[in-house]
Amino acid sequence: MNSFLESSRKDIIELEKLLTAVPAVAPEGGGDGETKKCAVLEKWLKENGFTDIQKIEAPDARVSSGVRPSLIATIPGKNTDAVWVMAHLDVVPTGDMSLWKTNPWECVEKDGKLYGRGVEDNQQGLVSAVFAALYYMKNGIVPERTIKLLFVADEENGSEYGIIYLLEHFDLFKKQDLILIPDGGDKIGETIEIAEKNIMWMKVHVKGQQTHGSRPDTGANACLAACDMSLRLHNLEKKFDKKDSLFEPDYSTFQPTKRLSNVDSVNIIPGEDTFFMDCRILPCYSLETVTAEVNKIVSEIEKEHKVKVDIEYPQKSESPATPVSSPVAQKLAAAIKKAHGIDAKFIGIGGGTVGAELRRKGFDAVVWSSMDETAHQPNEYCIIDNIIRDAETLIEVFR
Length: 399
Prior knowledge:
This protein is of the alpha/beta class. Helices cover about 30% and strands about 25% of the residues.
């Protein structure tokens, strides 16, 4: 284990505790954003030797400060090509407090783990990046590439006030930069995520004609039409049936999920019904192609059930993959091998990350970390040794 990191174990824990104590929940979750947490982190960075810190604030009238801040801490290298490590400041709400064994806003150390909201998602990656950078600063070592630590807002709710805002308003990244996102992985840090399934959420509203349960002939049963449509949408898994071993599962999924309440009595045939679909589609299929098939199903349902169907898409996201041969993928794989003797595995995921936003703009990015993946759960925890382990990997990436 790296001697600098091991000697910094107490400081690593203290930074986690400092950050956990400042909730950074988005307005969508009933919170006030990241401003206070960002200020605490900025103060800590300055006190510990970081001198080049840039704050970028995205306007958001919903929070008391009026802005959603992101930070960039820079350590100059031998050349201006950069290694970016991007973590996020925001966390999800606590959920059902009765399920927590500790105060979620107090980082508790026990048996080599830290418990609290945000300790793994995404403070583990944040703290690993900070202490990997500090290794160079404290030892007077100039890294080969310039180190850029980017701490963004709004990752948990779509990134409109985080990386999307940064990409739209600033030219921060160069094509030759290496971009790592320590925000997903496995227990030993061997998997490198280089691709994501395309995501398409649907809100499907079916409008028919309400009537008495005994006279379906006088109405148009929106619930029946909605059930039929959800099954037909699900069966798109058979049409878009290619497989890709990069992903688990290795096929496209079209799943009905949430359903809104319709009528209040059993003997009423509903005139309106609303349901949702969560579709995770292999990158070989464009969302335009999938949407065309959805529209065909809409026409069939409207004709057969004599209803009107309206579809909204709360989320649509597609992005290219980062090539296995890309410099960032190969550099990280080599660092994992050198630091821990592990041969990295390249994977794709069904979930969405901020990596997709970067890939859409033409920047290669990878997602990786060593974690038990307790994010968003009650009693979220991170393993202290994983913070150090990932910092060791990042030290090799920075060389």
